[in-house]
């Protein structure tokens, strides 16, 4: 079976604003933080940019010069002056979605998935995904599972981590260690999972992981490639060393890692 390839380092590509994996960014209703250089890099690299309702307030307060491609949600949080700034001054579509069984996060993902195929990115990055209310953080993880069931690749970014869901079977995670690591975790959510890993300080050898039992938190990345074979979807999270963003993982470097 061919391994599912993950290369989260390219989301933070330097230089010309090009990422090897096209992605859309969803701005959530959480404080964006003070790392303007990091945010600017992700913004430039994105193929499409969507604010989830109150996320438009966060973007406006962070830097009103950043203009999204869309704003969507039930629109009960966007401030009037923010809506006027984007909708009237910049002619940005503000798409009201009154579905009470979906969150603004989910509505933003739905909007991206409805884009014409040539405009639809390969994956979605949501930020800031953690750091606020616990229930919202749990919902972000729930959204990972909902997206995986629909074949949508979703990354959750926070000020300290990149988090995503590994698929059943073999997974190969390519890491630029100047950007990501060394702290990491492999965690089951909702049901027991059996994993075998390589490239970690404390590798798993098919043991069952479950809450109330074994959970691989506070692990460390040892190499440039981590391999995880799992019988069910499992949560992967890795430190984001945003203060050390000094190089880009080029296509040739990625190829050399995969051929090792």
From TrEMBL:
Its EC number is 2.7.6.2. The keyword Membrane does not apply. It is an enzyme of class 2 (transferase). Residues 169-234 form the Thiamin pyrophosphokinase thiamin-binding domain. The keyword Chloroplast does not apply. Keywords: ATP-binding, Kinase, Nucleotide-binding, Transferase. GO terms for molecular function: ATP binding; kinase activity; thiamine binding; thiamine diphosphokinase activity. GO terms for biological process: thiamine diphosphate biosynthetic process; thiamine metabolic process. Pfam families: TPK_B1_binding, TPK_catalytic. Pathway: Cofactor biosynthesis; thiamine diphosphate biosynthesis; thiamine diphosphate from thiamine: step 1/1. Signal peptide: none annotated. It catalyses: thiamine + ATP = thiamine diphosphate + AMP + H(+). Belongs to the thiamine pyrophosphokinase family. This is Thiamine pyrophosphokinase. It comes from Saitoella complicata (strain BCRC 22490 / CBS 7301 / JCM 7358 / NBRC 10748 / NRRL Y-17804). The lineage of its organism: Eukaryota, Fungi, Dikarya, Ascomycota, Taphrinomycotina.
């Amino acid at each position: 079976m061919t391994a599912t390839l993950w290369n989260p380092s390219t989301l933070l590509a330097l230089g010309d604003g090009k990422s090897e994996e096209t992605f859309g960014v969803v701005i959530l209703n959480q404080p964006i933080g003070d790392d303007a250089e990091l945010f600017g890099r992700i913004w430039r690299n994105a193929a499409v940019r969507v604010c989830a309702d109150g996320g438009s307030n966060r973007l406006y307060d962070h830097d009103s010069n950043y203009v999204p491609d869309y704003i969507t949600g039930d629109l009960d949080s966007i401030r009037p002056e923010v809506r006027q700034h984007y909708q009237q001054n910049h002619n940005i579509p503000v798409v009201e979605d009154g579905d009470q069984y979906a969150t603004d996060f989910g509505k933003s993902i739905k909007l991206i998935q409805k884009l014409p195929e040539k405009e639809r990115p390969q994956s979605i990055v949501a930020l800031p995904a953690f750091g606020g209310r616990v229930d919202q953080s749990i919902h972000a993880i729930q959204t990972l599972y909902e997206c995986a069931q629909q074949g949508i690749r979703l990354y959750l970014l926070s000020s300290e981590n990149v988090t995503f869901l590994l698929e059943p079977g073999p997974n190969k995670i390519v890491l630029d260690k100047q950007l990501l690591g060394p702290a990491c975790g492999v965690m089951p959510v909702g049901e027991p999972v059996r994993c075998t890993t390589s490239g970690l300080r404390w590798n798993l050898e098919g043991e069952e992981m479950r809450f109330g039992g074994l959970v691989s938190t506070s692990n460390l990345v040892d190499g440039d490639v981590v391999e995880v074979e799992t019988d069910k979807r499992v949560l992967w999270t890795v430190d984001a060393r945003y203060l050390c963003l000094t190089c880009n993982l080029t296509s040739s470097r990625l190829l050399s890692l995969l051929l090792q």
